[in-house]
Amino acid sequence: MSAELKIAFRFLLARKRAMLMSVAGIAFGVAFFILTQAQTRGFEDFYIRTILGTTGAIQVHDRFQDTLRTMEAGRENGAAFRIAHREARQYVEGVAEPGRVSAAIREFSNVTGVSEVVSGSARLRTPVRDQSIRLYGIRLEDHLMVSNLSEQLVRGNLQDFRQSSQGVLVGSTLARRMQLQVGDSFHLDTPDQSRRYRVAAIYETGVRDIDEARIYLHLGEARSLLKRPFGASFLQVELRDPDRAVRDAARMEEVIGHFAYSWQERERAWLEVFRALRVSSGLTVATIILIAGLGMFNTLAMIVMEKTREIAILRSMGYRRKDILRIFLWQGAAVLTAGVGTGWLLGALFTFAVSRIPIRIRGIFATDYFVVSWSLSHYIWAVVIAAAVVLVAALIPARRAARLEPGDVIRRSAA
Question: Is residue 85 over pLDDT 60?
């Protein structure tokens, strides 16, 4: 251990209680920063997984034709060029050749599955009441490749759906509202016809807009009921790396000539809300570290005032200004190390404890416990914030101590 470090610890022990309070403040600030980031990021990641498991990474919708506009390249030569505006596209509803388009999409290296979906409106009718719903016609095996439908079942099983052309998958909120159980029958009415179906299974995504209004039918049955023998409403696409959805969607539009809608674009509003919550909570909790840093600054300033004679003696013994500066910076480093180490441990314990707290959330996703995210980045950012605060809190008193001259101290003492 260097002489500067030994002296730094002796100075720290002179104000043991104040330094322990600074360590505790930094530790709790670091711990609560880790906890809040784990919570907000955990709920955001869980929401993203819910969306990807329900509506897919990319949805391919209407065929489009770009509208070209002519623009002048310059005033002198009169040259002009044409550009395509996405906002000025002319769209043709639906996917007219889903087989061909699906085959083209599967050529993308990041694509792991494509599901053809035919959707339309109908009215679900039981002896109790009736309600408008949105029906989705799917090929089950294809749709299981692009969704978490098998994991979302809460009652019944997919085998019953596979074996019966009249089997239907019903959302949990819709089933509860219509008083439907697995095996119950109901009617689906369209403007042209009415057919009888049976509940094969009940699913729950946690997304209220889906669970209260969506049912799944076999693709052929949906085509027959809606009288749409050809084409598809949209294609749902699953990606190996969902973070590349924006780039892949743009490339798909160029290749297949259909509008491709990435999950980042669809959920932009909610993603911005989660991001704002994460930043807001981080800034709020960082004030705890800031307050602890102010306390440490006050303690170090008091040490400088109390130890002026010792500092003067050290200077007389040959210690240079940078040596004195290093002594007080060592004190800050010691407080930072103890605070961050304790804060990391408390942060991990708090995060684990919160993840075990029961809570029932339904609306934008479904969970029965607090969702947390275990990420090393939360711990790193906590260290960065704490180090910045402690550095400023330690540097100002350290510079003041380094500027003390032995002669000035002796003259003030004599006076």
Answer: no
